[in-house]
C-alpha cells in the first residue's frame, strides 16, 4: 500500500507572499537636521590683515569669527560676524602702509547625522541648504545677469569652531559639488548625499565641509561678488543651515512576517517532495 502526504499548508504560503508583495513599498520620509548655535559647528574664516577693523583688536585672519568668540569681546564688534557665513574670493588690495586688504572668506560647517536613527543604506538623497543673505557693503550681490559659483569641499582633518582661523584652517579635498547663485533672500542647496552616507558608515571620518569661491568675480559696480548665508546663530531659526535627508524607513514588522511565512511555505513544499 502506498501513502501520499496530504497537501494542506502549501497553497497558503504563496498567497501570503503574494499579499505581502502586493502591499505598496514604503515611501521615503524627509528628515531635517538644523541645529542651533549651541549644538552646531559652523564658522567662517576671513583673510583681512588689518588689526582693529570692524572693532576686532587683532587681524581677522588670526582671529576666530565664531559668535561664541566674538561675543566675548569688549566692546562688541561693529559687525556681528558670528551671525552669518560667507564665501568670497577677491583681488588683494594694498593699503597706504603696504598692508594686504584681501577680503577672502571661507565657511566651515559640520553636522552629525548619527542621531537620526538611520543607516547609510537608507539614505536616498541629502542636501545642505543655506539661506542666502544680502551682502555687506564691501561686496555686491549676485544677480541673474552676474551669478556667482560656490564650491563645496570635504574637510579632511579636525578643526575647532571656536579656535579655527584663516591661518589654521583645515585641509580639504577637491570640490565635490558646485552651486551657481543668482540672487539673495533664497535657499541655496548643495548635494551631500555621498558625504552623509560616508558619515553614517564611518562617523570618525566626519570633519564637515568647507565652502569657497573658486573664481574672482567683480560686479559692474567695481565691488567683488560674494555669497553670504545665515549661520546657526541667526535670529530666525527657520533660516539657519540645515541638512535635509530623504530616507527609506526600515521594513515594517508585517512585511517581515509575511516574507518569513513565504519562506516557511517554500521549505514545507521542499519537505513534501518525494
UniProtKB/TrEMBL annotation:
The positions making up the signal sequence are: 1-27
Record's keyword annotation contains Iron: no
- GO CC list: extracellular region
What Gene3D superfamilies does this protein's entry cite?
A: 2.60.120.970
| Localisation | Secreted
Main localization is: secreted
Per UniProt, residues of the Carbohydrate-binding module family domain are 97-211
Show where the Ice-binding protein C-terminal domain sits: 247-271
User: Does the record bear Cell inner membrane in its keywords?
Assistant: no
Alphabetically list the UniProt keywords. Secreted, Signal
Coiled-coil portions: none
The lineage's top-level taxon is Bacteria
Alphabetical list of InterPro entries matching this protein: CBM96, Ice-binding_C
The molecule here is called TGF-beta propeptide
Amino acid at each position: 500500500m502506498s501513502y501520499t502526504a496530504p497537501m494542506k499548508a502549501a497553497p497558503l504560503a504563496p498567497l501570503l507572499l503574494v499579499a505581502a508583495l502586493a502591499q505598496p513599498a514604503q515611501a521615503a520620509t524627509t528628515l531635517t537636521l538644523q541645529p542651533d548655535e549651541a549644538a552646531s559647528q559652523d564658522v567662517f574664516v576671513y583673510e583681512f590683515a588689518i588689526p582693529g577693523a570692524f572693532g576686532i583688536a587683532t587681524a581677522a585672519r588670526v582671529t576666530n569669527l565664531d559668535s561664541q568668540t566674538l561675543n566675548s569681546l569688549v566692546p562688541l564688534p561693529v559687525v556681528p560676524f558670528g551671525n552669518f557665513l560667507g564665501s568670497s574670493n577677491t583681488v588683494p588690495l594694498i593699503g597706504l602702509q603696504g598692508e594686504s586688504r584681501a577680503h577672502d572668506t571661507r565657511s566651515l560647517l559640520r553636522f552629525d547625522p548619527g542621531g537620526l536613527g538611520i543607516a547609510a543604506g537608507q539614505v536616498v538623497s541629502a542636501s545642505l541648504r543655506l539661506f542666502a543673505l544680502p551682502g555687506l557693503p564691501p561686496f555686491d550681490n549676485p544677480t541673474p545677469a552676474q551669478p556667482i559659483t560656490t564650491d563645496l569641499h570635504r574637510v579632511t582633518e579636525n578643526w575647532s569652531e571656536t579656535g579655527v582661523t584663516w591661518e589654521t584652517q583645515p585641509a580639504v579635498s577637491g570640490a565635490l559639488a558646485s552651486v551657481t547663485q543668482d540672487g539673495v533672500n533664497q535657499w541655496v542647496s548643495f548635494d551631500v548625499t555621498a558625504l552623509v552616507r560616508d558619515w553614517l558608515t564611518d562617523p570618525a571620518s566626519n570633519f564637515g565641509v568647507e565652502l569657497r569661491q573658486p573664481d574672482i568675480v567683480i560686479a559692474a559696480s567695481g565691488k567683488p561678488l560674494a555669497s553670504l548665508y545665515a549661520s546657526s546663530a541667526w535670529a530666525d531659526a527657520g533660516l539657519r543651515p540645515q541638512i535635509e535627508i530623504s530616507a527609506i524607513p526600515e521594513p515594517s514588522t508585517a512585511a517581515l512576517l509575511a516574507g518569513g511565512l513565504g519562506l516557511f511555505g517554500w521549505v514545507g513544499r521542499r519537505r513534501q517532495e518525494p
